[in-house]
Amino acid sequence: MAEDKDTVCYVYGIVPADVVTDEQARGVGGTPVVTVTQGKIAALAGDIPRDKPLGRPDDLIAHERLLDLAAAETPVLPFRFGSVMSSKEAVADELLAPYHDEFLSALTELDGRQEYVLHGRYVEETILREVLSEHEEAARLHEQLRAQGENASQDERVALGEFLFNAVAAKREKDSHTVADALAPLTVAIAPRDPTHEEDAVNIAFLVDADHEQDFHAAVAEIAEEWASRVELRVLGPLAPYDFTVSRSTPEG
């Protein structure tokens, strides 16, 4: 079959071959999504215009939404955003066939497991009081700046800012270890993520067995209650296991 010179095949990820896509499913640019099957595995894929620029926030959201919806129903190996190949035939022959057993093994390991991300951000006033109560030098600088008001020097402001930044970073590390240790018995794997904000308290991905999901959420609820006035916690998921799979580049990058 001749390739369509006007399109390329966008690859979202790998799923078991028996997955049936929703006819209404749409991916990047609102394009239809299909499965390209090879043996016991399949790629979630779809044709997009060859000259379509990738990188818009809407495209990234569509990519992640499709994978997260799939992950709620079946094991999925997510590919990085922007993975394309020349055609569906190339996906089958150059991607699925050579790495069939590798992909199948990874899907088997993920079967019955979901990724959840626990993200928490400190309550600004609470964490400030906490740091000032624990560090005399920070409390002295803070009171000095309050007393001086607009007359406070830039050096003093910078000094206090650096102190607070480092103190919060230290608390983040300690609190992240506390959360990870508390939830480790209920999870298969843990993957710390970089903070997304200077006031982040925790940002950790967990791979959870379906049998332990209820206990996992109950444990998170206990942590949230304990930190109610200190950290605003939220759980994201189930998500595609972005943090627990190594996304292979396609032959075309």
Rg is: 23 Å
Report the strand count.
Answer: 9
Main sheet record: 5 strands, antiparallel
Distance between the termini: 23 Å
Sheet-strand content, in percent, reads 15-25%
Shape: elongated
pLDDT averaged over residues: 90
Overall structural class, as computed from helix and strand content, comes to alpha+beta
Portion in helices = 40-55%
* Helical run tally: 7
Query: Which consecutive residue ranges, at least 5 long each, have pLDDT under 50?
Result: 247-253
Order of helices and strands: EEEHEEHHEHHHEEHE
Explain what this protein looks like in three dimensions.
There is one protein chain. The chain is of the alpha+beta class and 253 residues long. The chain contains 7 helices and 9 strands, in the order βββαββααβαααββαβ. Strands 1, 2, 3, 4 and 5 form a 5-stranded antiparallel β-sheet that branches. β7 and β8 (200-209) form a beta hairpin. The two termini are 23 Å apart. The relative contact order is 0.16.
Could you provide a short overview of the structure?
With 253 residues, the protein is of the alpha+beta class.
Essential attributes:
253 residues; alpha+beta; 7 helices; elongated; disordered C terminus
Task: Outline the secondary-structure elements.
Blueprint: E1 7-16, E2 34-38, E3 41-49, H1 57-71, E4 77-78, E5 84-85, H2 88-96, H3 100-110, E6 113-122, H4 124-134, H5 136-148, H6 154-183, E7 189-192, E8 200-209, H7 213-226, E9 231-239
Antiparallel strand pairs: 1-3, 1-4, 1-5, 2-3, 6-8, 6-9, 7-8
Helix pairs in contact: 4-5, 5-6
